[in-house]
Amino acid sequence: MSWLDRVRNSLPFAAKRETADTLWHKCPSCSQMVFIKEYRENLSVCPKCNHHGRIGPQDRFTQLFDDGSWTQLPTPQVADDPLKFRDSKKYTDRIKAARSSTGDHDALLNASGRLLGHKVVIGVQNFAFMGGSMGVGVGAAFVAGIRKAIAESAPYVIFTAAGGARMQEGILSLMQMPRTTVAIAELHEAGLPYIVVMTDPTTGGVTASYAMLGDVQIAEPGALIGFAGQRVIENTIREKLPEGFQRAEYLLDHGMLDMVVERKDLRDELGRLIAYLCPEKAAA
User: Fold this and answer.
1) φ, ψ for residue 109 (rounded to 5)?
2) In the prediction, which pLDDT does 126 show?
3) How far apart are CA 45 and CA 103, in angstroms?
4) Do 257 and 156 fall into the same domain?
5) Are residues 147 and 115 in the same domain?
6) pLDDT bracket for residue 95 (50, 70, 90)
7) What pLDDT, on the 0 to 100 scale, is given for residue 1?
8) How far apart are CA 173 and CA 201, in angstroms?
9) How far is CA 182 from CA 61, 90, 146, 203, in A?
10) Within a domain: 123
11) SS3 for 202?
12) Less Cβ crowding at N or C end of the chain, within 10 Å?
């Protein structure tokens, strides 16, 4: 230790206080500082530029379910590290860190309740949990959500947010693509609707499977949606991609989405769709 460090450590400086919540939020889109209370009251949407921030399952459930009341489905138990994978650190360590930081068991949570009086099961992917990546746990949770919807004769609504398949689970993560597709077929056989709401970002194997199989395809404004990254596509086709490529508005203009809905209007829009797609259940 140098003499400067010894002097500095011996001086009676007050420790810098750190708080869990800051007073301000910096918008990643327009870089404006927004009072965090105002930001949260605005459903985590920037009041300056309308950028829709990423939110987790609990916030999403609170915004959608009637009276903020819902029943969270149990998380399916799967093997944490089926391939004993290790890159720069152990896969098990990455999972522990993600669980500690988010408080969730995996990247997809389901809950059942009522939305504008209609029975519904909602699944939400959490991008904060290892980029919302799709592994065996996410596949199992998706299937569990579908089967709960069938048992309750309710539609299943999925909010996607993912960087794609989880590389640490190799081929097992890719197997979740056909697995979730079969589950959606079971829901359709039961005569129940499947609604997809794509949030920022929805990419990779998730886009290539259950994110693009909805009876109704919705996205939040500005959401990044695609399979491969823009640079990969440009390097492959040797062409410059158009402005706004892979954004929700571009996909809407080119027929890949049915609608782009702002977060403040999502609850009413989903309620309207459920009443239209399940008229007998809505009347009951």
Assistant:
1) -120, 145
2) 98
3) 23
4) yes
5) yes
6) very high
7) 57
8) 19
9) 26, 32, 10, 20
10) yes
11) strand
12) N
Question: What tokens does 83 get?
Answer: 């391939």
> DSSP state, 222?
T
Are 66 and 47 members of one domain? no
Per DSSP, 77 falls in state: P
Q: Domain check: are 36 and 108 in the same one?
A: no
Instruction: Verify that 38 and 77 share a domain, yes or no.
Output: no
Length of the chain as a residue count: 284
% of the chain exceeding 70 in pLDDT? 91
Q: Of 224, 220, 225, nearest to 263 (Cα)?
A: 220
Residue showing tokens 């746990």: 137
What is the helix (H) or strand (E) element at residue 112, kind and residue range? strand 108-115
> 8 in a domain, yes or no?
no
Q: State whether 37 and 96 are in the same domain.
A: no
13 pLDDT more than 80: no
User: Is 142 within the bounds of a domain?
Assistant: yes
DSSP at 104: -
> To the nearest 10°, the Cα dihedral for 248, 261, 188, 180?
50
Q: What is the pLDDT of residue 281?
A: 58
| Domain annotation covers residue 136 | yes
pTM to 2 decimals? 0.90
In the structure, what pLDDT confidence band is assigned to residue 18 with cuts at 50, 70 and 90? very low
For the segment 19-69, what is each residue's pLDDT rounded down to a tens digit?
A: 545 799 999 999 999 999 999 999 999 999 999 999 999 999 999 999 989
Task: Give the structural domain span for 40.
Answer: 21-51
Question: Are 169 and 83 spatial neighbours (Cβ–Cβ below 8 Å)?
Answer: yes
User: Count of domains in the chain?
Assistant: 2
